[in-house]
Predict the structure of Beta-N-acetylglucosaminidase.
Amino acid sequence: MLKSRKPRIIELTGAVFLAATLVACGNTQEPAPEPAPETSAAAESSQSTSETSEESSSEASETSSESSTETTSAEPSESESDEPTETTSASASDFSDDIEAAYEIFGSIAPRELFAQFDSCDSVGSEHNYNCSGPEVGQMQFSKSSNRATQTTQVLTELRSSTVLEDSGDRVVGWSTLGSTAVLTVVDNKEGLVLQQMLSTDQEDPEDRLIELGLYDPAG
């Protein structure tokens, strides 16, 4: 009777051990628990904060770029600030080379305003003889020669057909007439300079013409 119960007890004991082993195995294979909702919410909040920061940085960069562009465009360009100022005052250097050359020689017997009315002064025969002309003043002859200055002075002061308006010794101003033609004359005996121009007395009075050209001043 005792022999038959012993194997049964062994069988029951083995069954209990097998059940415990299965329970232990089942606990080992269970999946890990899901993360708490708070962790996911924190991750989403961090991502939203990062995106907001990137947008703010981008907007600040665009604003700075636009401000820099407006400041640059508002500044005057170098070409505008450095525009040359027009010069209206005239000087001897404004003459062409040929007129300036004649003016440098004969400036003592004719005013600068007269040379400003010439279009050209052509050298004739030598570098000291010029024919100068302009549309308003006509043609005039200039020469530098002490002999010619002396001879011209004799003609003006000695011939009855000549009229002298000014005679200071060094400077002589007047004209000689032949028929209806007058030869207006200015002499600088000190420098040996002579200026002459032919004029029709039918069209204009010689004295008025000399005054008009600035070659003679009645007031002295």
Remarks:
- The first strand starts at residue 120 and ends at 124.
- The helical segments are 2-28, 37-74, 78-81, 97-106, 112-115, 146-158, 206-212.
- The chain is about 45% helix and 25% strand.
